[in-house]
Automatic annotation (TrEMBL):
Cross-referenced SMART domains: Fn3_like (SM01217)
SUPFAM superfamilies listed in its UniProt record: (Trans)glycosidases (SSF51445), Beta-D-glucan exohydrolase, C-terminal domain (SSF52279)
Family designation: Belongs to the glycosyl hydrolase 3 family.
Domain of life of the organism encoding this protein: Bacteria
Keywords: Carbohydrate metabolism, Glycosidase, Hydrolase
GO molecular-function term, one example from the UniProt record: hydrolase activity, hydrolyzing O-glycosyl compounds
Classification via InterPro entries: Cellulose_deg_GH3, Fn3-like, GH, Glyco_hydro_3_AS, Glyco_hydro_3_C, Glyco_hydro_3_C_sf, Glyco_hydro_3_N, Glyco_hydro_3_N_sf
Domain Fibronectin type III-like residues, every copy: 577-647
Protein's name according to its UniProt entry: Glycosyl hydrolase
GO biological-process terms attached to the record: carbohydrate metabolic process
Length: 809
């Protein structure tokens, strides 16, 4: 039987999940169910019915470095190699759709999920994601890039409205997805929880139909984030294919009712069902068996892949007087709790049950030529003051048997997590004090930094060396040991800017948004685009990274194909560097940052070798989005093509005449502070010019709706609702302080709006019951309880009738 011949209710049922992780197939049309699983940096194949937050047990799988770390490699081919391994494990663990990569733009360093995202720049994010997607899908597994789109904070993540101007959205926040879609052709894509300019992502026709499908040519399945669907009918109209997890049969009945009422075209229902069926067809070779585990040979091979990725992603940030690599015979004091108990991934739905674990202390001991003179814990992992631990570390460091101190510091498990944004850019005071005390011994200190995103470094001037390993996966410790000792020459470059202090960040004054609207008032001035344009000093510029080798650049030539430059390794050691191409538009052209990355190439060179590096121009190089014509245009005139080692350091530049399709158009002077990237002083009037309309931040709601999160109930006039919110907030804080881990389930509930209850309870709650819950929030406790109780029995009866109809009983 063909898909089109199925009944309306059968096709409607295919558009929502059958369980937490499974789709609904249809045996009559030979459409199998398929399995979805988290997997940005490792397959989290959940056991049992499971949960979506990473709390339940899962099968062992390789934990690769997180996206924020892999991005520092600037190597899409390496990402593809990692993707091939991920896809292989997904196949062996009977997973059809791997939910990753995460590729949202890093708007602010405090986003709790930044470790899952690649970069502040769409070129790096898009090309790295494209590599991973190609690798995953080479195994017949569907990749699912996420979260589409304009998703930048965890606070109120299911009930936040990203308010953004169209040009910034298209050029910064969507271009990464566009590159990935056009280059790698993913078979699915996941929408974000948030609204974009007042419309939920999963029912945003502008996003899903006009841009994703019509403009970019995407032909795959659009799946909601778990619980991220608002209206099943509106989603189907807009281009949303699959609602996850299972909402029971409520959505099925809503879709059938809309078709029967003539408010939903059956053609839209057919199109969405066909998209789901296509994923089932593309991944139909699965069926290895859900009880299977990875073979030992696969575990060993992929551990080596994970180590290689971590090695190429390590970033050398300081190397005073050549303290690194550690030479043979060096006596090392290893300090830091994270040197003994490694932290190599973040918290949340991406958390992997690693097949192996390493720690830096043991790995340094295992390397010939380096003598570990001793170990000291140095600090309490979760930040509590402990002078005794610090004193023990200083005593060890000051011992005559120690030549160099290796101090492992960074953020703990509570600091970087899905569902929770960071409260500060600082690491714990106890760790900062420890590093300062170690430096005071007069011995050279090499800091190894474990964190998924930038932190403030008050002691930077005092340490001799600094190696940033990020969240480097299960083989990150051996990778770090090999870099520290020179077995591997570090070649990573930062994929995001590290500011001197959080206050310097362009969005610091309005992030995260605590109310409904998250207003992107900084416009296009994100990351280095802001720092370079406004002339704000940074700790490390975007693209920065050192090496044990040195390189020179010469003979820049620009033609219609792109930029070409000769790179020479001027040292006695083999090494790799990243050549970065930045462009600046015509002097009288539209509003732009002072420079923007438009291409890059990682090049490996043997000692004293040279090569010509070619970086091609493409559809993204010179374009800008014009809101008035709703189209992409290129300005004619003289452009500056500059090659650099980071966003601040240009080694060569050349003027190049571009024949575009429009003449340069000077920006509106009414943009004021935007003209110089002076974001901190932008007025509401100037923002209205950028956005094309007045933008006002709303006050607190007097009446709560189905899309206001539970945490907002702290302001409810109803005692019951207010007590629920306060109790949950207190509980989450207490558990986090006690365990050192974020309470993800409670955080999810706090950020969840009531309407999500009808999407996350396997059909136990429907829309009518949600109305009752909302009534309770608005001080109508008894009326609301009555609606919930009555709705429960009506919903159970309706579910039974729907199940019978689908089973043709």
């Amino acid at each position: 039987m063909k898909l089109e011949e199925l009944s309306t209710i059968e096709k409607a049922a295919m558009l929502s999940g059958a369980s937490e992780w499974d789709s609904r197939g249809n045996a009559r049309a030979d459409i199998p169910s398929f399995v979805m699983s988290d997997g940005p940096h490792g397959v989290r194949r959940q056991l049992g019915s499971g949960d979506h937050l990473g709390l339940g047990a899962s099968k062992p799988a390789t934990c690769f470095p997180t996206a924020g770390t892999v991005a520092n490699s600037w190597d899409p081919q390496l990402a593809e190699q990692m993707g091939q391994a991920l896809g292989k494990e997904a196949h062996d663990l009977d997973v059809n759709v791997l939910l990753g990569p995460g590729m949202n733009i890093k708007r602010n360093p405090l986003c709790g999920r930044n470790f899952e995202y690649y970069s502040e720049d769409p070129q790096v994010a898009g090309r790295m994601a494209a590599g991973l997607i190609k690798g995953i899908q080479s195994n017949g597994i569907a990749a699912c890039p996420k979260h589409f789109a304009v998703n930048s904070q965890e606070l109120r993540r299911q009930a936040s409205n990203s308010v953004i101007d169209e040009r910034t959205m298209r050029e910064i926040y969507l271009t990464a997805f566009e590159i990935a879609v056009r280059e790698a052709h993913p078979w699915s894509i996941m929408t974000s929880y948030n609204q974009i300019n007042g419309v939920y992502a999963h029912e945003n026709r502008h996003l899903l139909q006009e841009i994703l499908r019509d403009e970019w040519g995407f032909d795959g399945m659009v799946v909601s984030d778990w619980g991220g669907s608002n209206s099943a009918v509106d989603a189907v109209k807009a281009g949303g294919s699959l609602e996850m997890p299972s909402p029971g049969f409520t959505s099925t009945r809503e879709l059938v009712g809309a078709v029967e009422a003539g408010t939903l075209a059956e053609a839209d229902l057919n199109a969405r069902a066909a998209e789901v069926a296509l994923v089932a067809k593309r991944t139909k070779t699965q069926g290895v068996g859900r009880d299977d585990l990875l073979a030992e040979s696969v575990i060993a091979e992929h551990h080596e892949v994970a180590r290689t990725v971590a090695e190429h992603s390590s970033v050398l940030l300081k190397n005073q007087q050549g303290v690194l690599p550690l030479t043979a015979g060096t006596r090392v004091a290893v300090v830091g709790d994270m040197a003994q108990t490694a932290r190599f991934q973040g918290s949340g739905s991406s958390k992997v049950n690693a097949t192996r674990e390493e720690n830096l202390l043991d790995e340094l001991k295992a390397i010939d030529g380096v003598e570990v003179a001793g170990f000291a814990q140095g600090y309490e992992r979760h930040g509590a003051a402990n002078k005794q631990l610090q004193q023990e570390a200083v005593a060890l460091a000051a011992n005559d048997s120690v030549d160099v101190i290796v101090a492992v510091v960074g953020l703990d498990e509570r600091s970087e997590s899905e569902g929770l944004d960071r409260s500060t850019m600082a690491i714990a005071d106890a760790q900062n004090e420890l590093v300062e005390a170690l430096c005071a011994t007069g011995k050279p200190v090499v800091a190894v930094l474990v964190t998924g995103s930038p932190v403030e470094l008050p002691w930077f001037d005092h340490v001799a060396g600094l190696l940033y390993i990020g969240l480097s996966g299960q083989a990150g410790a051996s990778a770090a040991a090999r870099v520290l000792t020179g077995v591997v020459n570090p070649s990573g470059h930062l994929a995001e800017t590290w500011g001197m202090q959080y206050a310097d960040c362009p969005s610091a004054d309005w992030y995260p948004a605590i109310g409904r609207d998250a207003i992107y008032r900084e416009g296009p001035f994100v990351g280095y685009r802001y720092y370079e344009t406004a002339g704000v000093p940074v700790r490390f510029p975007f693209g920065y990274g050192l090496s044990y080798a040195t390189f020179s650049y010469s003979d820049l030539h620009v033609d219609e194909q792109g930029a070409h430059i000769t790179v020479t390794n001027t040292s006695d050691i083999d090494g790799a560097t990243v050549v970065q191409m930045y462009i600046s538009g015509p002097s009288q052209g539209v509003l732009r940052p002072v420079r923007e990355l438009k291409g890059f190439a990682k090049v490996e060179l043997a000692a004293h070798d040279s090569t010509t590096v070619d970086i091609a121009f493409d559809r993204y190089t010179f374009r800008h989005f014009d809101v008035a014509s709703n189209a992409w245009h290129t300005e004619s005139g003289w452009w500056t093509i500059a090659l650099g080692t980071d966003a601040h350091t240009m080694v060569a530049s050349q003027e190049y005449a571009v024949a575009g399709d429009v003449e340069p158009q000077a920006p509106n002077k009414a943009l004021g502070a935007y003209l110089h990237g002076d974001i901190k002083n932008v007025t509401d009037t100037q923002m209205a010019v950028l956005f094309g309309h007045e933008v006002l931040a709303p006050g607190k709601p007097e009446v709560f709706g189905s899309n206001d999160p539970i945490l907002s109930w702290v302001d409810s006039r109803g005692f019951v609702a207010r007590t629920v919110a306060k109790t949950l907030i207190k509980r989450e804080r207490k558990i986090r302080e006690k365990t050192g881990q974020p309470d993800l389930n409670t955080l999810f509930i706090l950020n969840m709006p009531p309407r999500a209850m009808s999407k996350m309870t396997q059909g136990m709650v429907d829309a009518a019951m949600v109305e009752g819950i909302v009534a309770i929030a608005n001080k109508h406790t008894f009326r609301g309880l009555g609606k919930v109780i009555a709705g429960f029995f009506r919903n159970q009866s309706a579910n039974k009738r729907t199940a019978k109809e689908l089973n043709h009983e």
